[in-house]
Specification:
The protein is built from three helices and four strands. With 118 residues, it is an alpha/beta fold. It has one domain. Strand 2, helix 3 and strand 3 form a beta-alpha-beta unit.
Length: 118
């Protein structure tokens, strides 16, 4: 469903607000993150609420593709279980975001998300 909606937007800039349920199966969550990664070049704002485990697995599944977010200006990540993570779990999804000027990490330590001005 998520893929169908995003695919229907073509090359238009996107603002996405997404909440992923804690009990969502890992492979389904992985598909959602794959869809988001495929649309990374058109993403202007992203508000994402998910477990840190889903965020980490989504990053790991798409890390080899070195996604860039050239239009991303606003990022909001809320993760309710990030306190169990350590620096080995660093998510490096957003360093290629030259326009990113606003980031809100709610319940997510800054040390776990790599941002372009780090």
């Amino acid at each position: 469903m998520c893929r169908d909606i995003l695919d229907g937007t073509g090359a238009f800039p996107l603002s996405v607000k997404l909440s992923i349920a804690e009990n969502l199966e890992v492979d389904i969550a992985g598909g959602i993150f794959k869809t988001l990664a495929n649309r990374s070049r058109t993403m202007q704002s992203l508000e994402l609420e998910a477990s840190f485990e889903h965020l980490r697995l989504g990053y790991m599944q798409n890390a080899d593709e070195h996604r860039s977010f050239p239009l991303l200006q606003m990022l909001c990540i809320s993760s309710w279980d990030a306190e169990d993570a350590d620096e080995e779990d660093l998510i490096k999804t957003f360093p290629n975001s030259p326009l990113l000027h606003e980031a809100l990490l709610s319940e997510t330590p800054l040390s776990l998300i790599s941002l372009p001005w780090h």
